[in-house]
Amino acid sequence: MTDWNERRVAITGGGGFLGSALTAGLQAAGYRHLFVPRQRDYDLMQTAQVERFYADAKPDAVIHLAALAGGIGANMRRPGDFFYQNAIMGIQLIEYARRAGVEKVVVIGTVCAYPKFTPAPFREEELWNGYPEETNAPYGLAKKMLLVQAQAYRQQYGMNVIYLLPANLYGPRDNFDLETSHVIPALIRKCLDAKRAKRPEIACWGSGAPSREFLYVDDAAEAIRLALQGYDRPEPVNVGTGREVTIKTLAELIAKLTGFTGRLTWDTSRPDGQPRRMLDTTRAEQVFGFRASTSLEEGLKRTITWYEAMGGRERG
Questions:
Q1: Catalytic position from the list 139, 163, 170, 307
Q2: Are 76 and 139 contacting, i.e. CB atoms less than 8 angstroms apart?
Q3: pLDDT, tens digit, for every residue of 178-214?
Q4: Which one of 25, 97, 188, 192 is at 20 to 30 Å from 288 when CA atoms are compared?
């Protein structure tokens, strides 16, 4: 087994939400040769700049986190951008990793790739049994094509590309912009803003009935480290907690933890998205020993504390 902490590892999107947690986690684990390209220096949608990235980084391994991501609203407003940018970045990064002779590529997919009515808990074998939920299908399908590419390149070229499917992430340094954020940062911000302004209620999207699974960002980073070190097979791997919570229960918990005592109203004119999301995490534990360690309540407390300490900034 390769000892990757002695090798050169490049992390696309390493300055972002998950990337910053992963970079810190790898450094703490003794990784001494990390290359973290910045978007201002390398536009990964441009072929020449992808080639320059590989020439500059000379990586032994690449972890591809860079993505255009957002909540339901952002996906519905910009479906073309979400498809094109995520597809073209990933396709080019994998192809030019092959040309550069990179030993291993870790691709981070998305739970949005699963079919809309996948039976919970989602098993990796169900990935191709239907079309994704419509509000984020372009994003989910763009990321899903990278799994096809990874498996095709392994078959034709013997290239070591692995593919992880994380649950919805949350934690410090998340995006708290209400126009583009996911549900947890949006609810935290709404509750704290309403509490400060002494507003009697906040409006939540949808009915509150759908369920989601949430993975604390540091746990996701640890899963990626373990997969880099110990997983070398073509099958995709779910990364999560294996536990689901309804959006209504989540909102009530966030209200409690933020100290917001007003009403939660539900705007059913807004889409709910996928009815249920919960991953079967058996494979991750079996093949590279990952088990999430942070409870939802503890992770939310840490996220709220961080956001309050940052003075309510939209982004980390």
A1: 139
A2: no
A3: 887 889 999 999 999 999 999 999 999 899 999 999 9
A4: 97
